[in-house]
Amino acid sequence: xxxxSVLAVIFAIGLASYVAGRHRAILGRAQGQSYHSLPNxxxxxxxxxxxxxxxxxxxxxxxxxxxxxxxxxxxxxxxELLSSDSIQNAVTLAKIENIVDGIRFGxxxxxxxxxxxxxTVWQAESDLLKSMIxxxxxxxxxxxxxxxxxxxxxxxxxxxxxxxxxxxASSTVAIFTTIAxxxxxLFETIRFFQLVPxxxxxxxxxxxxxxxxxxxxxxxxxxxxxxxxxxxxGTLLISAIALFVSVPVGLLSAVYLSEYAxxxxxxxxxxxxxxxxxxxxxxxxxxxxxxxxxxxxxAGEAIGLTVASESAxxxxxxxGVMIIPFVSSLSxxxxxxxxxxxxxxxxxxxxxxxxxxxxVVLPAALPGIVAAVILAVSRAIGETMIVxxxxxxxxxxxxNPLDAVTTVTSQIVTILVGDQEFESAKTLSAFAxxxxxxxxxxxxxxxxxxxxxxxxxxxx
Length: 460
Fold this sequence. Notes:
This protein is mostly helical. Helix content is 75%, strand content 1%.
């Protein structure tokens, strides 16, 4: 039986277990027995016992059997192949797997054919044993769940315990995933700092990683420089421009929609604002490069300013438009969550709607608004396409929004494009930049939590 067919049988058994457990509980209640939980909980518990162990065994077995076969098949390898490099072993393994899949290219060696045939037998036996054990577990678990239906069994507590375990497991996976990401970046960053002094990276004012210390054609034998300051200043400059656009527009839009707009107006304007969140970033990049950047350049030159064809101002303006929905939608939800009793009390004291909004609603909603702004900041810091297309890739240390600058994410993408040698300082510098970006984002989140904590104490 295939994986899908076995899974279908297990779900059918689980459904039958649910029906049988629920039906038995209903019959018991009809006979005057007093059960602790509702009949649905007894059915759900029987289904859980039927589904959970069987699916776990099926999935784990399916993931691990190939790893076991990879080791078993090495018994067919010639002695000289066992000591060969990993590339040759991978090619050999691919040939054997082709035999297992019924594909033959040319005239494979006899031992490869024997290994493939042995693998086919192992796979058939494994599939049969896996199917039998999984289905048996489903039947046994469902039977136990139905037998446990009695007035002394607290099925609701058992079901909620399983659900709680699932929630804890999901949270644990998220936590360990975050830790794994940070550690993987941290280890590569340490390797980078073994090649480049940390002070040069943290305080260097020039970013020029294209040279690797050796002379190249036309390079003049230049030396690589890895100063991160220009990228982070460019990131902060473009993000500041984006926030200068998105926060006022998004927040005022949220205030209007939640406090002043009619239901009809709200039903039209809010979806139109949220459409902006669904536009791909590459489309924003095209808009910035073809429309906004030329307009900024011509407008600046019309009043005598020197404007680069790719400027931080153009990228920041378009990025600000892109993150308006994040600020607007989240702020609108937070403002609507402010209890109506606070507004009524303010009106009862003689406050006008604008005074109520400024003095009562917005302070009460401030923790959520700060969270919305931090989300917008994270979105702005992590944006790549708009920067690449509208601000360029020049790592210039400039505070002038009319100059061409670049951001950390743009440089990371540029460094890791194509085949890279992960032993070079140039490639490892991308991980160092990512590590600094993680630290920056962590600092912003800590600041946001402090603001939220301060104002929650006032309104709790």
